[in-house]
Each structure stands twice: as C-alpha cells, then as structure tokens.
Amino acid sequence: xxxxxxxxxxxxxVLDWRAGLGAEDFDRIVDxxxxxxxxxxxxxxxxxxxxxxxxxRLDAVSAARFGAEAGTWPLFSDSVEALRRxxxxxxxxxxxxxxxxxxxxxxxxxxxxxxxxxxxEEVRAYKPDPRMWEAxxxxxxxxxxxxxWHVSAYADYDLRTARAAGxxxxxxxxxHSRPGExxxxxxxxAALADRVSFGRV
Length: 201
Fold this sequence. Notes:
With 201 residues, the protein is of the alpha/beta class. The chain is built from ten helices and six strands.
C-alpha cells in the first residue's frame, strides 16, 4: 500500500547512537537505559546520564552534559538524503524515546525539520508503550492502518507494537539492530527511499 505517513525510530535507526555512546560497554549501557525507561518517568537526558554513571563511572556533571547533547551524536551517512527523498512521498515524523531538545539537535543536523517529533518527554512514556503511537496518530492526524509505515532497526520494542496497531513495518539493518517480523526489510534508509520512489514495494 502506498504510504500516507512514515514514522521513524531515531536513536539507532536515523542516528548512530553506538558511535555517539562509544562501542565500549554499549550493550550494557543500552540495557541499563531500558531498565530505567521501565521505571518512573524521567527525561531521556537523565536516563543517558545515569546509565553512564552506573556503567562507566562517569562523574555526574560530565554524564549530564553527555545526556543533554544526545541529539548531536552522528547521523548515519544515508539518513539526510534518504529522509529528504521520503518526505517527497509522504510526511516523515519521529516516534522516539528522547526529549524535545534532542529533536532540535537532530533536526539541526538534518538541515530541515521533520513533519513531527513525537517523543517520550511529550508523551511521558517510553516505547514500546502504545501511547507513543497513539500520540503520533493524534498529532499527525493519521489513523492506524497499512498506509502508515513505521521504520526501525528494532523489532522488539518498536516494530512489535507497530505491527499490533496494524501498521506496515519496515526493518532497517543497522549496527546493534534487533531483527524480527517485518513487512519489508532494507539494508539502510537509502534502500527504502529507492524502493518507495521506484514503486518496488
């Protein structure tokens, strides 16, 4: 079905958070972040900071600065041009376990604004909570259905919830990706843009 909306996981799909956090202890840091996200709500900046204090024994001030600047971590090399191309097909929005400030940082790196930034700070919940997608549906004025394509490198906490909501699910192979059931599997966002632009879906 022709897409009427693309939504994207950001950290790990559009932005290379392993490069941002560093490969050392990366899996452990991500596991700690997941544990913290399942507890009482805190901003993603705080969660990043605490994960670095716990795992790398970073001092609190340095860790807080690192968390606040998470949206400046490097983008994957294909992200900018692919998102430009995909926005010519349908609106592109983020559904992301991050903060509003990170949205400004990421979009600053992209050089353009996405059509929506639905983040954990706004919803007061973290993926895989369905409230993230419900908030996106309201904000983007698009009902759940196959015309809404959700794009992520994480089938566990992203695509599983999107599939349950009846969306078209696109799995992107990235470093540290977690594969699973998807309607379409692509090596990167550039390949997705090719598939959509040339009608190979």
